[in-house]
Structure formats: C-alpha cells, structure tokens
TrEMBL record:
A Pfam family it matches: ACBP4_C
Keyword flag Repeat: yes
Domain Acyl-CoA-binding residue range list: 382-484
Coiled-coil intervals: 385-478
Name of the protein described by the UniProt record: Acyl-CoA-binding domain-containing protein 4
Length: 499
C-alpha cells in the first residue's frame, strides 16, 4: 500500500474488508468503546478490557496510518466536574455514545465506577483538548448504558439501554444541542421491546430505525421505525436476506444504505456485513468473514470517512473471545440511483404492514427536525392495490394459522386448568391430613410429657424403696444378733442348774 501519500484507499477492492498495516504503537485492545471520524482522523474514547473500564483518548491518522495518544485536561469553565484540577484524567467509561458537534465530541451516558442517577453528558474540545461535563436542563433521563444516540439536525435522539440497576428501557428522549435541554417523546402504536446494545439510524431526517439488540436473555433481529413527525411506531417487513439475531453490533450510513457490522449472541459472532437499503427496506449480505475474525465481534465500532473524494468504512476493536485493536477498512460500491421513499404510519398502512412495497414512498413534506419538501411524488396505484390484495390473502392465511394455534393453545390451557383444579383438591386433602397429624402429634407430645413426669416420680419411689430395703436389711441383722445373744445367755443358766 502507498501509505506515505495517503493513496492506499485507491488500492482497495470494493465491498471487501482489509486490515491496515499500522505503523508504530497501537492502543490497548478493547470493546464497547466510542468512535467518531472527523476529517481524516478516527477518534477513540474509553471502552472495556478484562472487566476494567478505560479512560484514554486515541486518534488514528487515516492518511499515514499511525496512532497517537492525546492527553486531556479539565476545562476550567466546566462547573460540574467536582474537585477538578487541570491534570484530572478523563473518567474511565464504557458502553457510551459519541458524536461530533461543532468543534467538540459529545459523549452520552455509559458505565463508569461513579455513575450518577441522571444521565451525564460530557464533551471533548478537539482544538484545546479540554474535557468537561455539560450542564443539561429539562427532563433529564436516568443514567444508562448500551443505548443508541442519533443526530438529527441539532438534536440527539436517544432510545433504550439499561439503567445502573440493569433495568431494560425502551423510552425515547431528545437533547437539543443548541439549548442543551432534554425532552421526552410521547409515542403511539407498539413500542419495541426494551433492549440494549442495539443500533439506530435516522433516514430522510424523519424516520428513526432501530435494529437488533438484546434483553438479558433474548437477542433480536427485528427492525422498528419511529415516524418523528407523527410519533408512531411501526414494524415493517424487511425483504431480502434473513439475518440472525445479534447485539453489540455497529452501524453507519452512507447515502441511503445502512451498513451493519459484527455483533453476536454470546455464543458466536455475526460474520456478515449487512447493507440495508433504507429507501426500499431490502437487506443484503455485503460480505462475510470467518468465525473468529475481529470483524465478527461484539462491541466493535464502525465509522465512515471521505478521503480524496472516496467514501469508505473504518472499523476498530471488538471482542470475540479475544480483545482486538486492528483497524479495518472497506470501500463500498457507489450507491445506485433510486427514487426516495418514506414509510406510511401504521394507521394508514395497516392493510399492507407485512409487505414493504405497499407503503407509499416519497420524501416527507415536513419532518419534525428538518425542513425537507416534497418533490415529484409518483405512485403507481394499480400496482399498490394488487400488492395490497395479495397481502390481504397472505394475512388471511396467517390469521387462519394463528386462530388454529390459538385453539390448540386454548385446549392446552383448559387441560392445564383442569390439572390445576385436581392438584388444588389434592393439596387441600393433604393439608387436612397434615392438620390431623399435627393434632395427633400435639397429643402424643402431651402424653410424653406426662410419662416423663411419672418417670421422675418412679425414680424417686425407687430410691425410697432402696432405702427401705437397706433399713430392713440392717434391722434383720440387728434381730439376728439379738437372737444369738439371747441364745447364748439361756444356755449358761441351764448349765448352772444341771451342774
């Protein structure tokens, strides 16, 4: 590779990952860090390794392929950093988010040793290399980690995560970066299940897409869409490849494609690099790696960059049984020209919810966070009607299957209820027997107590009998002695008379 002139990317094949030949020392291998590309530099903050949170700030130059470590000092104007000094290090943190805003990196949430009850927002100034805590106002969310954060105009949209008590969340909050004020979003329709370690992206400045993630026991591969104008959730069907559930993956968009890399299910890493066409809602496998490849890891990061007019992906870190610190790049093919599309709200598209093509697709007239305008809306109604009819038949067939399954489940439920009644009766009978046995035991214990008292009395009587026997024996000896003396005395008198 021509690393000296920064022309190495021109040698890359399309849609293939390649490890960069990094010069000099590298940062510690890690996962669950945060990454952002600014210009031709990749910035890495924090992460986790062997159960220890990291606090370093690393930068990778994408032109000369070298790493360097940057020392951060506390911003003296940051009033929320307690007991701060200019030499105070950036806090060790993991499972956080980071985005670039103006000349700063904004770091949201994450796990740390001294986590507060409310969500902490920090900043790093890319020019002065000062860091601090941003004072936010409004309805500040509770602290959390594993959440997703997406930038829409001047607003950050945060979804889900888990709090410091490991309670799973599925709430939506917005941080206005101009006023640094938090607000809640009140949504309708079916909200995604609470989750963390998912990915999120915003399409056309209006639609928030949530993909994958996990609870404490379940891994997801579902896609949910929040219309930021109507505040309605929907779960459209995704066409194309069937992908395995995953969490801890990373995602980034180039044009209207959402590239999703890595992740896993605690047993194996996801080997595919996915490309989701957000306009058509079609997902495809761009490439695959081997099972133990660093790109098949959880907690890695992926970013996008433009060098010499070329767009490419850059991935770093992750854990798949081994912590990684390799830098990988991919040069994706240029995007095909397609007509822009939108998602209908669930109420307007209920009859065609199972098929993406049934949605009327266009650029939104007015988004909640942008001022985009509608132009050149072309919808083939006849095709859409035929599609809806086909979908209706599919839905009716699915409904019949669901009803049959419901009947089977109801029969099982009836059997279970019957068994429950029998077991309840048996339990009551056993409880009655137990009461009787307890009463019998109480009587026996009373009899035992009386017998013990009688035994004590018998022991006393036995002692008295022994004493009487002893006295009788002594009396018998005394009588015998007396009789012997009397006989001796009587014999002497008769001998005197006869003599």
């Amino acid at each position: 590779m021509d690393t000296e002139n920064g022309n190495w990317l021109l040698e890359l094949d399309h849609d293939q990952w390649i490890a960069l030949p990094v010069s000099g020392p590298r940062p510690s291998a890690r996962y669950k860090h945060a990454a952002a590309v600014v210009g031709e530099k990749l910035y890495i903050v924090g992460g986790s390794r062997n159960g220890r949170y990291l606090s370093d700030f690393q930068v990778f130059d994408l032109t000369n392929l070298t790493w360097s470590s940057i020392k951060l000092n506390v911003d003296p104007n940051s009033e929320n950093v307690e007991h701060s000094s200019p030499e105070m290090a950036f806090p060790a943190i993991s499972s956080h988010n980071m985005i670039k805003w103006e000349n700063r990196l904004i770091i949201v949430g994450g796990q740390s040793k001294n986590i507060s009850d409310r969500l902490t927002v920090r900043f790093i100034n890319l020019e002065s290399h000062l860091w601090g805590v941003i004072e936010t106002t409004g309805n500040i969310p509770i602290s959390r980690s594993g959440q997703s954060v997406s930038l829409v105009g001047s607003k950050l949209i945060m979804f889900g995560g888990e709090d410091k008590s490991r309670r799973l969340l599925n709430d939506v909050h917005v941080l206005d970066l101009e006023t640094m004020s938090w607000s809640d979003l009140e949504t309708t329709q079916t909200t995604p299940a609470p989750r963390f370690d998912h990915t999120a992206e915003v399409h056309a400045g209006r639609y928030l897409l949530i993909f994958g993630g996990c609870s404490h026991s379940v891994f997801y591969s579902d896609l949910h869409v929040l219309d930021l104008e109507t505040m309605e959730w929907s779960q459209p069907e995704v066409q194309g490849e069937i992908v395995a559930p995953r969490a801890g993956h990373a995602g980034v968009t180039i044009d209207d494609k959402w590239y999703i890399v890595g992740g896993g299910d605690n047993r194996s890493g996801a080997q595919e690099t996915l490309a989701l066409n957000m306009s058509k809602l079609v997902i495809s496998v761009l490439t695959s790696v081997k099972g133990r490849d660093p790109l098949a890891s959880e907690g890695l990061s992926v970013s996008s960059s433009i060098i010499h007019g070329e767009k490419f992906l850059v991935a770093f870190g992750g854990y798949n049984g081994k912590y990684n610190n390799e830098v990988y790049v991919m040069r994706p093919k240029s995007n095909d020209s397609t007509h822009a599309k939108i998602f209908r709200s669930p109420a307007a598209a209920a009859a065609a919810a199972s098929v993406t093509a049934a949605y009327a697709l266009t650029t939104p007239e007015k988004a909640a966070f942008t001022d985009t305008r509608v132009s050149n809306i072309e919808v083939d109604l006849s095709v859409e009607i035929n599609t809806v009819k086909k979908d209706k038949k599919l839905l009716e067939s699915s409904l019949s299957e669901v009803q049959a399954e419901k009947s089977a489940l109801q029969a099982k439920l009836d059997d279970t209820n019957s068994t429950h009644v029998d077991l309840s009766k048996e339990l009551q009978s056993v409880q009655g027997q137990l009461v009787a046995e307890r009463s019998r035991c109480a009587k026996l214990e009373a009899q035992i107590a009386e017998l013990q008292k009688m035994l004590v009395s018998l022991q006393s009587i036995e002692e008295e009998v022994q004493e009487i026997r002893r006295q009788k024996a002594e009396f018998d000896r005394d009588i015998e002695v007396a009789s012997a003396v009397q006989r001796q005395s009587s014999g002497g008198v008769w001998r005197w008379v006869s003599g």
